Amino acid sequence: MKPHSALVIPFLLICLSFAFGFHSYKNAEQRIVNDLNQALRKSVTANMHCWLCKDSIQTYAKLQKIMDAPVAINSTNEHFSEALKIKEIRPSAGIMIHVLKEREQKAIIKQIPDNVITSDTVVWLSPTVNATSEGLFVSLQGYAQCPVTTILALSNQTWAAIFFFMAIIMGAYYFYLWRKQQRRDQGTEKDLVHFGNLTLCYDKNCFVNEQREKLKLTPMQYALMEMFFLSSSHQLPKTDICDALWPGKENADETLYTLIRRLKPIVEEQSNLKITADRGRAYVLEVKS
Predict the structure, then answer these.
(1) Vertex 259 angle, CA 256 and 262, to 5°
(2) DSSP 8-state secondary structure symbol assigned to residue 112
(3) What is the pTM of this model?
(4) Rounded (10°) angle between helices 253-270 and 238-245
(5) Nearest CA among 65, 60, 73 for reference residue 111
(6) Which residues contact 253 (CB under 8 A, 6 or more apart)?
(7) How do the pLDDT tens digits run along the chain, 289 residues long?
(8) How far is 288 from 79, CA to CA, in rounded Å?
(9) Deepest in the core among 96, 105, 140, 175, taking most CB within 10 A?
(10) Residue extent(s) of CATH 1.10.10.10 domains in the chain
(11) Cβ 110 vs Cβ 128: under 8 Å
């Protein structure tokens, strides 16, 4: 199996893992926003007489006039926290009150800190306060500080984890197969000896030519050819051949001559090699000139 093709399945599994994880993460964020929205509605309804009464609006107006800029008040609120259904965000939840003029209405969302999730904005304009004649707005917004870890804990990452571990397992499996193939290829290369256009294959005990065709050799012929290939000079003294192939036989010259005579045409017809005699004392396997 090719390395690039083996990586396709693990890559797809990782993509699925991130897709499911991101989708679940966004769903958890939306759950938090929805919870902040419903808690803010309850809190505004329950505390309207405090936050949005005539005296409070006038106080907001004075603050806005003194600062000559939008005024923001951040505070935790017991009623707001208790109205939240998600218990994990209660300790870091609160309400932001912005005091601004009509022309500044779009500026209330520009300075939200990092890791803070906010509700929708409730904008209040009271017709009973003189300050409203100047276009004074009061906006309320629920918020909760939610680090990534909190959102992940609230999200369902089961399928993301399943696909991720499947990718790890598949990646490790394909890596194992690839390493196994590498070792096999390395081992195969070590088991091959090349000379001319013939190759000695140790693992299969045979010789093959360029067309990957096996030479049909008898066991004695194969043994002699193997000796030629394993010799660095590809030259073998007659005595060494006889001692190796016919140990204990006093005179094996005739047997060796017969073996050489029958082996020569096979080698010469199926390769670019030939067997020649060297001064009657040795035989040489060499490439045809």
Answers:
(1) 150
(2) P
(3) 0.56
(4) 100
(5) 73
(6) 238, 242
(7) 555 566 788 889 999 999 999 999 999 999 999 999 999 989 888 776 666 666 666 676 677 677 666 677 777 888 889 999 999 999 999 988 877 665 555 555 455 667 889 888 877 655 544 444 455 677 788 999 999 999 999 999 999 999 999 999 988 888 888 777 766 655 455 568 888 889 888 777 889 888 888 889 999 999 999 999 989 899 999 999 999 999 888 888 899 999 999 999 999 998 999 999 988 789 999 998 7
(8) 101
(9) 140
(10) 192-287
(11) no
For helices 158-190 and 8-51, angle between their N-to-C axes, nearest 10 degrees: 160
Which CATH number among 2.40.110.10, 3.90.1180.10, 1.10.10.10, 1.10.287.130 corresponds to the domain 192-287?
A: 1.10.10.10
Size of the chain, expressed as the number of residues it contains: 289
| Cβ(205)–Cβ(223) below 8 Å | no
| Angle between helix 219-230 and helix 253-270 axes, rounded to 10 deg | 80
